[in-house]
Structure formats: C-alpha cells, structure tokens
Design a protein that fits this description.
This protein has a single domain (4-239), classed as Rossmann fold, CATH 3.40.50.880. It is 32% helix and 27% strand. It has helices at residues 18-24, 64-79, 88-96, 120-126, 182-201, 217-235; strands at 4-8, 29-33, 49-52, 83-86, 100-116, 134-146, 152-157, 162-167, 171-174. A 9-stranded mixed β-sheet has the order 2-1-3-4-9-8-7-5-6, with helices on both faces. Helix 2 (64-79) crosses helix 3 (88-96). It is an enzyme of class 3 (hydrolase).
C-alpha cells in the first residue's frame, strides 16, 4: 500500500492528531516538511493520498513551494488520488481545483461553532452522530475560500460560511483546525496571541474571549479528534 503524504508548512501547523488517526486506520504516513526546506514531490504517483496542513502564509503568496503544491494537487486530482486540506491546506486545494481564496471580512480565531449539514453526503462523511449538529472547532485564519464547482458542503459557520466541503466524493476541504492537540493550542497562543488580543479589542465576534482559549483543552481537542477521525475514516476509503 502506498503511503499518504502529509505536508507541514510551519512549526505551529504541525499535523497533530492527523498522524495517530491515520495510523489507527492502518495507513503509513510520509511527512513532507516544507517547514524544514524539504522539496515538494514532482508528482503524486507514489502516494495513495495527500494531506496539506495549515500555515500563516496565504495561498496567493509568491513562494515557490506554493506553486509546486498547487501543481501537485492538480496532478493528484487527475490521477484520482484523494487530497485533504486543513485551513491553509483547504484553501490551496480549493484554489488548485477551480475555487477562489480571498480575505474574509474578519479573522476567525479560537473556539468557533460550525453546523454540520444533514444531507446524505454529509451523513456519509460525519456519521449520523454528527450530521446536522452544532460542532465546536478551533480556528485561526484571516482568509476564506470559495469552493470549486461541484463541491458539496459538509458544514457552515455563522461567522465564516464556508467551512467544510467534499469534492468528487474524495477531496476533503476543512477550514477548521480539527487536528489541534492541547500543546498545539498552547503554542498557537504563545506565538500568535497578540492577534487574538487585537481582535478582542475590536470586539470581533469571531474571536474567542482571551481567557477562554486555553480552557478545558483535553476535552475540547478530544471531541475534535472524534470528528476528524470520522472524516478520515471516510476519506481513506478512496486511498486504495
């Protein structure tokens, strides 16, 4: 079985729960650490799936590896290889496959609620236990994406509508950071906490109260991992 490639763009954008979830699903993972200068593979042929993590950069930034990842996503799509993206990763997948990425009207930072769709497609991906429900997720982004033509919504948010989509029943786009561990939430606050302070001063309704961001992290992150595990259990079906 070919490995699944997981692309890490920054230290804070580590894969977190993605690795143990894929391992529990019996999948071998090969890390591609862009953060450490590792090269983007020339094509997707030796992988069964591709997962792109988040990062502070934008999908339109003139970084060589961004253009290379966009080309790799298109190559995977042409080969029928499933692709998944988290935050920046979801925006890269959207942009590569015909969608758009642009600044949102306000940053979304911290614990935010999204509502899972209740369609047949959403039930197949979320499971009956999550479809149609309000879900708490962790977010940290200033951009948003318009999904590619034909994408089916899996979840929407009150402050940022486009949250999760599936395309061609194999590509998964998730704006939220469902992969976060307590340590990664704490690292995000340590490195980028001033962004949250500024948004709180602006009374941004899409930003967590500063004192709440670090509360009850084991329970909150475990609940997100259950959501992500359900999505990936469906996603890996297409990975051969």
């Amino acid at each position: 079985m070919k490995p699944i490639a997981v692309f890490q763009h920054t230290e804070v954008g580590a894969p977190g729960a993605v690795l143990p979830i894929l391992g529990a699903l019996g999948r071998e993972v090969e890390m591609v650490r862009i953060v450490d200068g590792q090269a983007v593979p020339a094509d997707a042929s030796r992988f069964s799936g591709l997962v792109f993590m988040g990062g502070y950069m934008g999908a339109h930034d003139p970084l060589p590896w961004i253009a290379q990842e966009l080309a790799l996503i298109r190559d995977a799509d042409a080969r029928g290889i499933p692709v998944a993206g988290h935050c920046l990763g979801s925006q890269l997948v959207a942009l590569a496959l015909g969608g758009e990425v642009h600044p949102h009207d306000r940053p979304e930072i911290g614990w935010c609620e999204i509502t899972a769709e209740a369609s047949d497609t959403a039930r197949a991906w979320w499971g009956e236990e999550h479809a149609g429900k309000v879900l708490q997720t962790f977010q940290w982004h200033a951009d948003t994406f318009t999904p590619p033509p034909g994408a089916v919504p899996l979840a929407r948010g009150a402050c940022c509508a486009n949250q999760a989509f599936v395309l061609r029943d194999r590509h998964l786009l998730v704006q939220s950071h469902l992969e976060m561990t307590p340590a990664l939430v704490e690292l995000s606050m340590a490195r980028n906490g001033q962004q949250l302070v500024r948004q709180n001063a602006l009374a941004n309704p899409a930003a967590s109260a500063g004192g709440d961001l670090l509360n009850d992290l084991p329970k909150r992150t475990q609940e997100m991992h259950a959501l992500l595990g359900r999505l990936y259990a469906r996603w890996v079906v297409g990975c051969g």
